[in-house]
Design goal:
Elements: H1 3-20, E1 23-26, E2 32-39, E3 52-59, E4 69-75, E5 81-88, E6 94-102, E7 107-112, E8 119-127
Parallel strand pairs: 2-8
Antiparallel strand pairs: 1-2, 3-4, 4-7, 5-6, 5-8
């Protein structure tokens, strides 16, 4: 197999894998939500993103505005974690927040008063006391 053939077959597979990394689903009111979650590769456990469970996603509840969106990010693991979250806004910038310590079963609310549709949520998860940050623009 020539190098060119390998490159041509690898690139589409890589792009499909990249697109599948995010999770897409419909909310109760029929809107499409795209959620992107990544783990902090600098921590001892690079799979702490598995600790996040998303609940209570809804439009219009935050800020008393139609374009507002909120979702609760719940720590479903036994260990405390740090979460840095961002929601893509209409101006294509990210509205971000951080919770340096979320104990087992506790949650943080990620929200934006002017979320872009379909909604895009990015988050990084690491051990409590870590310094993980979302790196998406």
């Amino acid at each position: 197999m020539k190098l060119r053939t390998l490159f041509v077959s690898f690139v589409p597979a890589f792009l499909v894998g990249l697109a599948v990394h995010g999770q897409m689903h419909r909310t109760n009111d029929g809107r499409v939500v795209v959620e992107m979650g990544t783990a902090d590769v600098a921590t001892a456990d690079a799979n702490l993103s598995r600790c996040i469970r998303r609940t209570g996603a809804q439009w219009g509840a935050a800020c008393d505005a139609d374009g507002s969106y909120q979702v609760d990010l719940v720590n479903s693991c036994d260990q405390p974690i740090r979460v840095h979250w961002c929601v893509r806004e209409e101006n294509d910038r990210l509205k971000c927040g951080v919770s340096p310590f979320i104990g087992a079963g506790q949650s943080v609310r990620a929200q934006s008063c002017n979320a872009k549709r379909p909604v895009e949520i990015h988050y990084e998860v690491c051990e409590a006391g870590g310094s993980c940050r979302v790196h998406a623009e």
